[in-house]
Amino acid sequence: MHVDAVLEWLNDWADHVNWFSFVSIPFFTGVVGWLINWSGLWMLFKPINFHGFRIPGLKEVTGVLPRKLQEIPGWMDGGFGWQGIVPARAAKMGSIAVDKVIAKLGTPAEFYAQLEPDQIAEHIVRVFEPDLPSLVDEVMMREHPRLWRDLPTPVKNSVIARVQAQLPGIVKTITDEIGVHIDQLLDPKIMVIDHFRANPELVVRVFRDVGQRELNLMVGFGFVFGFLLGIPVAIIDQTWHQEWLLPVLGIVVGWITNLLGMWLIFDPPEEKRILGIKVQGLFLRRQDECAEVYARIIAEDVITLERIGDFLMDGPRGDRTRQMIATAMRPAIDKAAGPLRGAVNVAMGGKRYASIKESFASEAVGRTITPFRDADFSKKQSEKIQVLIARRTKELPPRDFVEMMRAAIKEDEWMLYAHGAVMGAAGGILHLGFFNWGWIPGFPPS
Questions:
Q1: Residues 66 and 190 in one domain
Q2: Comparing 41-45, 133-137, 257-261, which segment has the lowest mean pLDDT?
Q3: Most buried pick, 2, 3, 40, 250, via CB within 10 A?
């Protein structure tokens, strides 16, 4: 009895189905799903810089809007337009990269030790030593030109030679002192955040290089998810024959398509078995491979010897670094004067002698740290940092590893889902226009 009723209902349902429209819906939602995920990736990464225009009063209005709307790129500054979510959150990405990943990879002291300070000292001496005679000559001509001109050349050469003899020991003291105080002199969080903020394209490169394969799969699966979700949509549409259904269901399909795409890449972080099938986020399955790529980018572009040198000298704690180097440099003149120091001090006067020491130390500060900025030497040292970061990144628990990529955009994912919903609704309206409202003459076929 019940079977006959079901069969009768199915026959009646089939008689009222527009089969051309029914079959077209899953393909249509599949294409829309692909477009949603493709354009969603565009929204994530492009444009690198904000594109749009300013609207008077928008900044003030945005301040009273819900927090989610305030996060739309550009709105808090009164701009109406768009900037890729990832580059717009470059500073945030830098902060999370430190908190969730880099801070767990090692302290500043560990990074510095990995750079082999003894080799740095040898390199500084090798680069600085040829400039030392001109530095001594420059300081002496400025501080005591008459005395320096009157000294015989052999005596001048002797002074310079004695200063050069002190150089390796002084530089070793400097690199050791940097190592002892590196935790106070170097702040990785500030260094990384400032670098990411100034170079938003680097953050995009991190995502692209590390997860490009998964991002491509996300786009491809947009069609699969859209097609599968289109099947129940087609059944519902041809059951109730209400024109408002397709746009409304399109919102649901668009939202779920993006949601499934993100889930496919990142969830679950830990491997699970469901009915004997391995289930794990695609990104997590390549943790070792992704760790190598991530480590290379960080070592080559973010935490480099060049950037460490720049931060030590020009960062917020640069004055302390310069003072420390100058303090280590001042004894060079005393040691160069040797047993004649007392006589020289008397001949020049205590203030003039102290001025020479201070001037020499100040001039030497910049030249001592300059070898940090040697690109070739920095590249060699970055290989050591890369090995450390790669090893530690591979050891991260999967949940921490996935946060390295996702945490920076997680709060903004709603924009992608909302974008999917809008496109899904638009897709539903387009389908109605093509297949119900006759936007194309003679189509669909009667």
A1: no
A2: 133-137
A3: 250
